[in-house]
Amino acid sequence: MSTNNRLFALLLSISSLIGCSADPEPNPLEDVSQTAAWALPCLEQPVHVVRTEFDVPHIYANSRADLACAQGFVTARDRFFQMDLISRNGLGTLAELLGGAGLSADIEIRSRGGRHIADQMLDSVAGEDLAVWEAYAGGVNAYIDQVQAGQLPVPAELEAAYIFLRVEQPQELMQHWSALNIAGVASTVNFVSGFE
Fold this sequence. Notes:
mainly alpha; 2 strands; 8 helices; two-stranded antiparallel sheet
């Protein structure tokens, strides 16, 4: 290869590396039909969620924090009641939701140190990881806000049980999340994994 040809090949390689190629790669997500759009306060850039067969969500984001925010929103839409119970179990706060029916579980969880473990996990996370936990909680909170504003339906479990839980509306049973709730989930997973 002559010097001129090598130089030309090198210039072509450099131009494609710095984004000067004539045809940029098409984004296949642009071909997917949009069925819903949500403005989530915890997002910095647009995120795409594609639901495939059996309603499985696939999330495409440009950062870990945006991915966590969208994941929190999507998971809460699909499983808020379950995830809230798991978090409350790890923190020993089931009685706040279930009244006397959750008290014995709370006593057991706190006596085995579930809340202490959650607090230690939260204290040990920092930097980008803490930002991811907070973004996830932000996604859950965006879902809760949408439900409380009447833009999304109340979780079916809360709709069925709110009268027995002595509140006037099921939305009253939905409390905002923080990174501590994620530590509560981790505490429950830690206990179940270690027990088995």
